[in-house]
Amino acid sequence: MRLPIEPRHVPPRLVTGAFLLDSGMSKRGMDEQSAAYLHSMAKTAYPFLGRLRPTTFVRMLSAGETALGAALLLPVVPTMVAGIGLTAFSSGLVGLYLRTPGMRRPGGLRPTQEGMPLAKDFWMLGIGLGFVVDEARCKAR
After folding, report:
1. Other C-beta atoms within 10 Å of 63: how many?
2. Which residues contact 55 (CB under 8 A, 6 or more apart)?
3. What is the DSSP letter of 3?
4. Cβ atoms of residues 32 and 55 within 8 Å
5. pLDDT, tens digit, for every residue of 7-49?
6. Which residues 6+ apart lie within 8 Å of 61 measured at CB?
7. What SS3 class is residue 42?
8. Does the record's keyword annotation contain Membrane (predicted)?
9. Residue 129 to residues 46, 75, 86, 125: CA-CA distances in angstroms?
10. Is 111 helix (H, G, I), strand (E, B) or coil?
């Protein structure tokens, strides 16, 4: 049986999947104060999230990160599917970075010290887009 992933996709899938799985698992059971902080940042960038309770938001975020991390780690999930999920998720994080005051230096995209933890999400967007483009190109042949 041939797996639906190319060997060249294994390293970025392993690294990104492990990172997201750890991030999602670490949010399980987050205390209310930390959940409120995370939720307040998210609703600043995405006001519709204000309708959720902070603990509900964090529980959903945790589940999403855990599921996406697992999808990247499991070789039975096609790279195109994992890439679309990673692109969508990381686009939201990049949007959070771009919309949250104080994350960027004036007049550009360069992060402030506070923005550094969010700026790193650009690498996930690049990996996700790379998976999608590579898979689309291979399917076109």
Report:
1. 13
2. 30, 32, 35
3. -
4. yes
5. 999 999 999 999 999 999 999 999 999 999 999 999 999 999 9
6. 24, 27, 38, 42
7. helix
8. yes
9. 23, 18, 8, 6
10. strand
